[in-house]
Write a sequence for this structure.
């Protein structure tokens, strides 16, 4: 089923490109086999290829500093999805090509010199930026060319990589296109609280202009496998990477913002210490600022409805009010731990508000916000925050119903 979906996706993209070429007169001179379809981009700290090093040694390269390595991911038009004749192996459905330089636009224009032909960026789905590069250069600089490019669509997503960004565009499965896989993973919010809402270029522009700190989804890659793991913290003033939130801390952010669409809470029964799983069906959070003179504080009211989806307590009867109360309290305690843990990291370690407290203060106290917004991250580090968590278990699953 999954293989059929990938094949249909590949055919739809190819058909779209064919129609685009047929209807656009200025491209009519390019054969579809000669025009590459770009679907992903990776930005890393500069690391020259052997060919580039050879050119430098021979004095044949153009003057440049090796600051950035840009990797393009193209659809491999020659891949059929079937085994290659005589080899029994399957071609990858994508092709990654890298070049190094100090100007992103100039690196892009290296492709024709390398005999890679013409390409279109109108179907680029994702831009992955490496941790090391974003600690050195600001996000607005790294994305400047893409934001100006009228080919790159505003819906293109931006993701951060802990490690080489180009590795996030490599997969073991030759039948999968890495860029498509990353985009598809961002659509799984209904299953977990550990995925951020997708961040396209259009939305990211507003985030950078506001000068408020924010989060970008983090991805880790190893041995041809890619996983979403926590989030990157971006400083609103410098637009550089400050650090990372791990998966548990990202869960805490999801509860504070109330933007989760689903997921689980793992807790342990107070009496037996056995495992209990609460599955989220709905989530809501209200951040309430309080201002008294120059003193600012917040109350955060978190509510959720869900179901008891897994219970390891041997005598845990969901129709027993005492057990139900213990289960509810255990889940609420875990949620409080999640939000307080990530709040401590935001305030004490990073001194950065990435949960929207400042935005809520701006909405309810705009005059005060204008006075303090330039130093909000520093001020936020000492603001008292009180959390009130209320969970409701309204469903016990089919096991409970049978009893």
């Amino acid at each position: 089923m999954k293989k059929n979906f990938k094949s249909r996706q590949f055919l739809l993209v190819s058909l779209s490109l064919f129609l685009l070429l047929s209807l656009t007169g200025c491209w009519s001179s390019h054969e579809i086999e000669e025009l590459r379809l770009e679907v992903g981009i990776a930005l890393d700290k500069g690391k020259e290829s052997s060919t580039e090093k050879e050119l430098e040694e021979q004095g044949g390269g153009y003057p440049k500093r090796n600051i950035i390595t840009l990797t393009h991911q193209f659809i491999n038009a020659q891949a059929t999805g079937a085994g290659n004749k005589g080899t029994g192996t399957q071609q990858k459905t994508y092709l990654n090509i890298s070049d190094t330089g100090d100007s992103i636009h100039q690196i892009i224009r290296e492709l024709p010199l390398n005999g890679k032909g013409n390409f279109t960026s109108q179907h680029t789905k994702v831009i992955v930026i490496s941790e090391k590069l974003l600690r050195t250069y600001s996000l607005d600089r790294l994305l400047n060319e893409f934001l100006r490019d009228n080919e790159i669509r505003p819906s293109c997503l931006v993701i951060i990589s802990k490690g080489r960004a180009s590795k996030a565009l490599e997969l073991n499965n030759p039948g999968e296109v890495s860029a498509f896989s990353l985009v598809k993973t961002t659509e799984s919010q209904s299953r977990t609280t550990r995925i951020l809402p997708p961040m396209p270029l259009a939305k990211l522009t507003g985030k950078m202009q506001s000068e408020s700190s924010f989060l970008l989804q983090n991805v880790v890659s190893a041995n041809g496998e890619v996983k979403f793991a926590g989030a990157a913290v971006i400083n609103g003033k410098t637009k550089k990477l400050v650090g990372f939130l791990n998966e548990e801390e990202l869960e805490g952010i999801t509860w504070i913002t109330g933007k989760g669409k689903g997921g689980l809470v793992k807790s342990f029964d107070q009496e037996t210490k056995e495992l209990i799983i609460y599955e989220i069906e709905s989530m809501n959070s209200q951040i309430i600022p309080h201002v008294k003179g120059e003193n600012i504080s917040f109350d955060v009211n978190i509510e959720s409805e869900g179901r008891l989806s897994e219970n390891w307590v041997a005598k845990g009867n969901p129709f027993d009010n005492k057990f139900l109360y213990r289960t509810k309290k255990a889940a609420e305690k875990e949620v409080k731990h999640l939000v307080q843990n990530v709040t401590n990291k935001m305030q004490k370690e990073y001194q950065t508000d990435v949960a929207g407290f400042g935005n809520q203060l701006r909405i309810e106290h705009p005059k005060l916000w204008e006075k303090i917004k330039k130093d909000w991250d520093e001020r936020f580090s000492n603001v008292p925050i009180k959390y009130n968590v209320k969970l409701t278990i309204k469903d016990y699953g089919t096991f409970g119903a049978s009893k």
Remarks:
- The radius of gyration is 25 Å.
